Amino acid sequence: MSSITIDGHRIDVLFSETEIAKRITVLAAEVAARKPHRLLVVPVLKGSFIFAADLIRAMHHAGLSPEVDFMILASYRSAQKSSGQVDVLRDIESAVQDRDVLLVDDILESGRTLAFAKDLITARGAKSVMSCVLLDKPGHLAANIKADFRGFDCPDLFVVGYGMDMAHQFRELPFVGHVVTV
Ligand code: IMP
Ligand code: MG
Questions:
Q1: Crossing angle (nearest 10°) for helices 49-61 and 17-33
Q2: What percent of the chain has pLDDT over 70?
């Protein structure tokens, strides 16, 4: 396994740039095969920004021409509370009635963030709300949701890179890595 060191943090590569690019081509083809109706792609920011940027360009190559709008959600997980709270920091501007909507997120962990976004957009009358996540982290699911499209099964480790951060650091890494020495 290759690794790099930044500011004294050792980061092991889990999913390389090449592996991610290959997988995204397949994901875009899977979305296209559903023949979505008036597709609206909604990246759930911030962690998904690089994944979404690559995915929508792969969608173009797969023959799709989606509209894209953004949502910023903040989720709070505290030990005292049994259910995490999710706040909308930025909502989409687009109407969703009679459209197929694809939510794009970096990681599905408890599922609360994605379940919240799905409920919100479903309640507004979308024809369907699908979701695409780069990484599926097993074992923490608290909400009743399953991603329709999944990039990789993720080991139960804290990961960074490819848009994902540790206190806003490491988003620029072109691969997904695990911070071994924090
Ligand atoms: P959940 O599915 O609502 O628990 O939230 C998943 C969100 O938590 C992801 O979209 C990430 O923003 C964040 N997250 C979970 N695990 C990690 C990780 O290993 N690294 C960075 N962010 C993470
Ligand atoms: Mg996120």
A1: 60
A2: 96
Q: What is the pLDDT of residue 79?
A: 46
From the CA of 63, how far away is ligand 1's center (Å)?
Answer: 30
Q: Are the C-beta atoms of 71 and 87 separated by less than 8 Å?
A: no
Element (H, E) at 116: helix 112-123
Mean pLDDT of the chain: 94
Ligand 1, CB cutoff 6 Å, lining residues: 47, 75, 105-113, 158-160, 164
67-102 pLDDT, tens digit per residue, is 999 999 998 655 444 457 899 999 999 999 999 999
Ligand 1 atom 10 nearest Cα: 107
- Which parts of the chain have pLDDT scores under 70? 76-83
User: Which residue ranges form the domains of the chain, and what is each CATH number?
Assistant: 3-179 (3.40.50.2020)
Nearest-angstrom CA–CA distance, 165 and 11 = 12
